[in-house]
Amino acid sequence: MQVVFTSMTSRCLPNILNLSAHFQHHSLPRIFTQHGHTKEELTPPYKNQLVKKWGPSGSIAKGSPDWELMPDIDKISADNECPIIHKNTYDAFINTNLAEVLKKREIQRVVVCGVMTDCCCDTTARSAFDRGFETWLVDDACGTANKKQHEAGLNGFGYAFGEVLQTEEVLKRLQ
Hints:
Shape: globular
Structural class: alpha/beta
Largest sheet: 3 strands, parallel
Distance between the termini: 26 Å
Helix content: 25-40%
């Protein structure tokens, strides 16, 4: 998660750190994403749909202070075994090598957490499901702007795509 999203992480960050520690302890793969836009994408004419929607001032510029990973996330992602997928849209599979990374590691289940529940997390989780991965979206390890948006993202995903679980349930199932 990036500095720009710090205000959305008070509830989810401890659970993300707990999940990450569990994955590391059990040698389960951890993959992180980092959202950002190049100078070209932030310059008219805008070709990126997110930049068109939010404008350059509402978009995250690569290399900016807002683009940096939060210190706790930066620390746990520093392990060379934890790739960081750089993305420029909500779906971490679009314009990235995420699908190849998952297939190379023979991953069959994707556990999604982070921010924003109803944008990046939900969209990436749906995309993982559509690509044939069993997909879990972790309610208390996701955050967003408000409760209504959080619940909307979880409800839509849980209805048609995969399971919405709490951190403790994920940990129990992965024992």
